[in-house]
Amino acid sequence: MPGLFVATSQIYCTGEVLQQVQMAKLFDDDKYCRYEVDCSSCSGFPKKTIPSSELQKILQTYFEEPVLHWQKPLFLPISHIFLFFQKNVIIKVFLFFRESYWVMNGLHLSEMTETARGMILNFVYLVKRYGFVSNGGWVYYEQRSQPPLLPLMVESFYEVTRDRDFLRQVLPAVETEYSFWMQNCSFAVSMSGLTHILNQYNVPVRQLINTVCFKNIVRMKLWIELTSGAESGWDFSSCCDTQTSPILPADLNAIMCRSEHLLASFHRILGDEEKALSARIKAFESLLWDHLSFYPSNMALLWAQCYSKLKMADQGYARKVFLGLDYPNGLPTSLSESGQQWDMPNAWPPLQHMIIEGLSGLNSAHAKELAFRLAQRWIQTNHQI
């Protein structure tokens, strides 16, 4: 992972201009970006508080309105706004990395495999450039990622196309991304004489190092936690807010576990020497099956089949899923009513899919029936809406 990063893109207009515009709360959304046409034009910006009306005049003089999503093609090679992509296909700038996996599955069902191929090649391009797939398609996302679902995207593409040449083409990038997470986002936990390696979201301060806010160490630490929470995709919730980096998330580690199985499978398909799987399942059974607090995303362990004994999986779901059965509209993202977007009563469609698929894969008639009921409830909810 790169060290401390000083952003050079013009979207990062640092100093008094950005400071006063943000503090004045001129826009409902802080991501309502206005980028400077000529940063030198504002070099004489006064270092005193300016009334909001005067700030608006300055913005109208020196800044351009943001591009609306539907006004221009998605993949524009504008270095200070969008990341550059090689394939002019849908989905990257305005969707986040993690949602793209489920979008891609929809493309396969719609027989749009070439579009899915282009998406994967765009992600491969990002891995080659940054070492990982960025959070999204804007330049301010290029220093953090999201849950690493690229191996699963390649799996779904291969299951539809059986294209071994394509699999061989993209496999090095899939391994590079996996290595990035293992080298830069892992943490060693010792228990009962054993050391387990698990993954975490922990984004170092690589952005905007020279800005005013980072002269305060408390703000710097807060920025680390907020960006780590954003990298988790659960921004924000009672789980991932200002204390994200100390957590070893079950869902992230489930994805890494499934990725390890897929990497071994890819090498086997291509006739290569099969690479050894990690000891992650042992770590799961030691550390992640019992939780101080329950989040439905913990059930990703079932979806990724991260267990060595089926009995453990059956007991795990029995202890936890029943907590969510009283909710008629599907499983909420958490059981905490914090008012944040990834908490009760809100639900996330891919999470429903992960839980339902995980239950369906158990060798239990009760689990399969439960998966069916959860699927029915979710479909009925969406139909009513």
TrEMBL record:
It is an enzyme of class 3 (hydrolase). It comes from the Eukaryota. InterPro entries: 6-hairpin_glycosidase_sf, 6hp_glycosidase-like_sf, Glyco_hydro_37, Glyco_hydro_37_CS. One of its GO terms (biological process) is trehalose catabolic process. It catalyses: alpha,alpha-trehalose + H2O = alpha-D-glucose + beta-D-glucose. The keyword Disulfide bond does not apply. Gene3D superfamilies: 1.50.10.10. The keyword Hydrolase applies. One of its GO terms (molecular function) is alpha,alpha-trehalase activity. Keywords: Glycosidase, Hydrolase. Pfam families: Trehalase. Its EC number is 3.2.1.28. Belongs to the glycosyl hydrolase 37 family. This is Trehalase. The lineage of its organism: Eukaryota, Metazoa, Chordata, Craniata, Vertebrata.
